[in-house]
Amino acid sequence: MSESKKRAMIWERDEKAILRLHKSEEKMDHILVTDVGSTTTKARLFQKIKGEWRYVLSGESPTTVEAPYENVIMGVQNAIREIEELTGLGILSEEGRIIKPHSKGMGVDFYCSTSSAGGGLQMMVAGVIKTMTTESANRAALGAGAIVMDAVAVDDGRPDHEKIDRIRHLRPDMLLLAGGTDGGTTALVMQIAELIAAADPKARLGADYKLPLVYAGNKDVRPAVQSLMKEKFALSIVDNLRPVLEVENTEPARMAIHELFMEHVMSHAPGYPELMKWADLDILPTPAGEGMAMQLIAYVEGKNVLGVGLGGATTNVYSVFDGKFVRSVSANLGMSYSICNVLKEAGIENIIRWVPFEIDQSTVVDILRNKMIRPTTIPHTLKSLLLEQAVAREALRLGLRHHKTIATRLKGAKTAHRMVGDMLEYSLKETYIEMMKIDIIAGTGGLLSHAPRRVQSLLTLIDAFQPEGITKLYQDSVFMMPHLGVLSKAFPEIAWNIFDKDCLVRLGTVITPAGTANQGEVIANMRIVMPDETLFERDLQFGEIIRVPLGERVKAKALFSVKQNFDVGAGLGKSLETMIEGGVVGVIIDARGRPLTLPEHDGERRRTLVRWFDSLDLYPKEFMEGWEK
Amino acid sequence: MTAITNDSQEKESAEEAYAYTPGLKVKRGITVSKTRTLPLPGEVLFKEGADVGFDTIVMRTEVPGKPTIMKVADVLNVKPEDMPAFMVKKEGDKVEEGEIVAKYTPFFGLIKRFAKSPTRGVVEAVSDVTGQVIIREPPTPVEVKAYIPGKMTKVFSRSGVVIETHAAFIQGIFGIGGERHGALLTVAESPDDVLTAEKMTPDYKGKILVGGSLITLDAFKKAMELGVCGIIVGGVRGVDLTEFLGYELGVAITGQEDINITLIVTEGFGQMSMSTRTFNLLKEFDGYEAAINGATQIRAGVIRPEIIIPHEKYTSRTEAEDLARGIRPGTPVRIIGEPYFGKIGVVVSLPVNLMDIETESPVRVLEVKLEEGNVIVPRANVEIIEE
Q1: How many Cβ pairs closer than 8 A exist between chain A and B?
Q2: Contact A558, A508 (CB under 8 A)
Q3: Residue B339 shares a structural domain with residue B219
Q4: Which of A63, A187, A368 sits opposite B300 (nearest CB)?
Q5: How many Å apart are CA A344 and CA B363, to the nearest integer?
Q6: Is A198–B124 a contact, with Cβ atoms under 8 angstroms apart?
Q7: pTM for the full model?
Q8: Is B42 part of any domain?
Q9: What confidence score (pLDDT) does residue B18 get?
Q10: What is the pLDDT of residue A208?
Q11: What is the pLDDT of residue B313?
Q12: Smallest CA–CA separation between B108 and chain A, in Å?
């Protein structure tokens, strides 16, 4: 299948946008895309240069959706003005509107945007059975780019009054109600519907407008839901997301969520009605744009992908595993506003274990709390940078752990002819995410993109996710995955070209024999034949990590022979011959074992870290002297 | 000049939004304007122009009562669709706690089953699909106080008021505890002093204590025992805060803690000398009654804790507004990142080109004159000190 056909599978071109084009696609040469983030509005200018679409530059400015400004347009204009100053291209008219189409050095031909300002799309979901319809509703909302504030189920263990209290206190942007298979329970669906109606939740953006509610449950209950909910809520009824237990159909619910997001949520946020008029495409929630970018990598390469967006407030984890796309969001794990939540959830010991110099717990707590209260500060000293990268490892680790609870097999589905052995394995491995089967890890977000050396973000991802076998690592160059995700709705080919050339930084490939042994024990032999026929061959000792230079888009032939209790992708003790691809960092051979463990003795732990960091040339050595002592 | 408090109506211009790195406000004499709002429409008790005090109740409303779900069909052991026929009370009827809502007495009364209301309220809904009945409890009254003394300058019909007062206005960086008022009492000799338990005495009851660089955990506990109204201090240790609250604070959204004391931290976590300007200003108003609020929210649309000291000492001035237009040579700044955290200095220059810092990141920097000499710091790591 051709690449464009593969992309067409996930990217349905928005034909309405094409009708709104100011000039034909062939004649377009300037595109502007913004992402209105919770802190910063990021504008990206794309331009056709010598017949090829490329990223040109960025403009950024604080987001102005909340007090004292309360008009998102101001932040967008400021970000655009930065681009104007840097390029000399006039984009805004005297009235401050985007000039379209581009003509005589003024304006752009197309404009679109994503948004997560004001905390993004916040939803509450509800269903009948916690592990069945409620879990599916949760996945549908997450897949649409929402933060799920709570998932209420008939059997979630909370008494009714507690659920009601919770619903009354939440102020979501939208509700998703599921429950029952088609033709299944009606009473239990109505039980949860009546509970929601009684609790009468109010919308976050104002008590005086109807809260949008998507009903995606048992179709037999639709009339009853309609009569119960239509006065209190802006009701939208779509196909059941679990029509039968064996099938999960989240797409209709996801599309309804996006429509209601535009119609009800965005149109009530300050300045958004104007922004919606400016945009040539519907505004998408930022994680929805990011998710599309992750899916693109998976489909174009035909591989399993694990993606992550590590932000200041939240951590989004995406997986495309055997073609199934799932997103999870850890709404309170982030690197600035939510940095102390990482501390709270991971524990101080888990953060400090990644720090190679001596520092007491109380000091670390104070440093992280100071980052929380002044979230826009950046690390000035190497020690502060290391500490933030230590926190990032834990945020990512927790984010993946959470993701695995979302990326699960459908519960309640009957599988014919399942053997007892299968059943046991099934209950033990609830998630289907297997690190040995993840081919690509892709990261985006400020901490990863701004790492002074690319190898730092690469090791952060490796330590947190602990890939096994052969895994390629990609990174967003300057945070434009959401931008390209939304742009792809109208112009998949343009978006892919920019994505491939300017967005994806190919960090390299990590090769990890999975297993454990004694420190220093020889666990494998590797032979890498470089493109110029030079041979790189050596034994691998357990506990080491090494870096082999191999450039971006350059391939080499590799042969790994592993000891009996190690697996590098071909099975335990089996040799693997494969082609590996380099990157800006190169090829990393990670013989530190899986699961990755650090020595318990503090001095030994620090010496081990310094040895690893040294081996990869992770940090400037002049500042690291004496750390391990 | 009007302070831009978290709920002020005032807006910045686009140009200012672009260039302005907001600092914490430390103002001697300005018009502070607070918008007080009701959670739901209700009644405003005064007219525009009225004078109000700290504790004057200015608005009230009623929040709908909690719903309670009764599984009546289950209790009567009847089918949901049959249940409405056995209702003694209908939708809209008032019920008392323990009163019979539905009864089922077949076989000439040989079997008697009753569903009694677990609470006082009104029957809101009767469902023949689930067999549930919803009882809505009586509404809860909510009152809103003025919080600051002054003149009511605006009334928003049934929803809110604006109160204005002439005051000194100081923002902290972080706080816990809600709105309170009390007399200021400077107990630190200098901005570097540490507030310890030994220094706490019973006559501090009801006062807002002004400390120096740190308050210890024991001192904080003692202050609460003594009934101290509030504490303003340069720093607090993160681990002490966790122990005091009994839980680890994950995100900085505070103000709703169930404690009878308000803490306002002016500089940050750890031992941090209070800025001399803040300390001197608080000392100047020793004995004055002040309103404080520890509520902090750190997202876009930041809410910082505040100290409002109403007074008539100085008339409004229109100085220092140029600071709001951005950082320039001569701007006083506080460094808010290691290795110079907490140091205060004056901007010397703003190099145009990006510069590599210790981490090897190329960033925008500025040169700051400190007591110990000039230093280069990332622009992101300073905040303007507004006087």
Answers
A1: 191
A2: no
A3: no
A4: A63
A5: 30
A6: yes
A7: 0.86
A8: yes
A9: 31
A10: 67
A11: 80
A12: 30
